[in-house]
Design goal:
The protein is of the alpha+beta class. It has two domains: about 5-15 and about 120-165, no CATH class; about 15-120, Alpha-Beta Plaits (2-Layer Sandwich). Helices cover about 35% and strands about 30% of the residues. It contains six helices and seven strands, in the order ββαββααββαβαα. It has a four-stranded antiparallel β-sheet. A three-stranded antiparallel β-sheet has the order 6-1-7. A hairpin with a 2-residue loop joins strand 3 and strand 4. The two termini are about 25 Å apart. It holds the Pfam family Monooxy_af470-like.
């Protein structure tokens, strides 16, 4: 079980931040032959990315919505995300090709979606929580007098990143 941080925490990060959401929807849940291979491909991709410190993936979180699984990914570079998606030798490209081939044979059985956000600023708050989400992907730091309010954390100049030194 992850260590719970007592008190109010936020994240610290200086640099490009890309948030990538990806999910799938089981439109025909009984068509396991169509959605299971795509579902099983994602852990292989995340393992591949996590083992490569230069991949650009800083962290991720798996959740389940009413429509199906959703993964929130944090990247330190939009270009690294795009490079991974198109790299012929990486896990993604063959998985995507195989998904499209299966999907054409049973159109609409499973849906795949993604959204990419380039984040200019990010604000976070964690109370009585282990490092999770953005704080887990970057650095968890205590809330200080200069970062006590969301407005302070979101504004330039009094955010934790301005008030505290980053990781060396």
């Amino acid at each position: 079980m992850a260590q719970v941080n007592i008190g109010r925490m936020t994240h610290h990060y200086d640099g490009e931040l890309i948030v990538f959401l990806i999910g799938m929807r089981f439109n025909r849940p009984w068509r396991v032959d169509k959605w299971l291979p795509a579902f099983l491909a994602m852990p292989r991709m995340l393992t591949e990315l996590s083992k490569d410190p230069d991949s650009g993936l800083m962290g991720f979180r798996l959740s389940f919505s009413a429509d199906g699984p959703v993964i929130v990914q944090y990247w330190n570079s939009r270009e690294k995300l795009y490079d991974y998606a198109s790299a012929p030798s990486a896990e993604h490209r063959p998985a995507w090709t195989a998904f499209n081939k299966r999907a054409r044979k049973a159109a609409g059985a499973v849906g795949i979606w993604h959204e990419t956000f380039q984040v200019e600023r990010a604000e976070s708050m964690y109370v009585g929580m282990p490092a999770i989400g953005l704080a887990h992907a970057t650095e968890t730091v205590p809330v200080t007098r200069n970062s006590d309010r969301a407005r302070q954390r979101m504004s330039g100049g009094s955010t934790p990143s301005a008030a505290m030194p980053g990781p060396s």
